[in-house]
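Duplicate of #3305? Posting structure anyway:
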């Protein structure tokens, strides 16, 4: 059982395709309260910092270029068992392997353009939330 908060990003291609509303609706309908929300963008350096754990992997360059290629939506989400349930709601990293009805199955275009990010642990949810939001920007 994970803690009660997780962190998400709606990635550039999903923002460009006008999927902010539909994705937030799915998140709300899954029982999450949005505790912080902003449209912003990452510089290449900031994207490299955010995805530091993947530095050196073959997809790192494409991932960080893509994540800094347009506006994103960052959000902190609250609900019991937030991290684990959100990973189920978004589905597998590769949309071809994501279950029917998951956010990635519906809105992702490919493995790299997979619509949303979701924290993989309580610890990373805190680190990622603090990366984007000050105390004044959340409740
Ligand atoms: P997840 O987002 O499901 O936690 P990872 O943390 O493993 O997945 O990877 C971070 C992001 O990097 C993925 O969401 C995806 O956009 C991209 N990515 C991961 N693996 C690949 C890959 N093999 N090819 C292209 N992009 C990838
Ligand atoms: Mg991950």
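Output from current build:
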């Amino acid at each position: 059982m994970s803690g009660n908060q997780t962190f998400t990003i709606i990635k550039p291609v999903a923002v460009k395709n006008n999927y902010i509303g539909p994705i937030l609706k799915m998140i709300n309908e899954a029982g999450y309260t949005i505790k912080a929300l902003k449209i912003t963008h990452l510089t290449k350096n900031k994207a490299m910092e955010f995805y530091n754990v993947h530095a050196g992997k073959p997809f790192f360059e494409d991932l960080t270029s893509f994540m800094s290629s347009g506006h994103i939506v960052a959000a902190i989400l609250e609900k019991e068992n937030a991290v684990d349930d959100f990973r189920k709601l978004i589905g597998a990293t590769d949309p071809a392997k994501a279950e029917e009805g998951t956010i990635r199955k519906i809105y992702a275009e490919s493995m790299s353009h997979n619509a949303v990010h979701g924290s993989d642990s309580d610890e990373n949810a805190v680190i990622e939330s603090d990366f984007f939001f000050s105390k004044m920007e959340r409740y």
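Confirmed duplicate; merging threads. The CA atoms of residues 54 and 60 lie 6 Å apart. The chain has one domain: 5-137.
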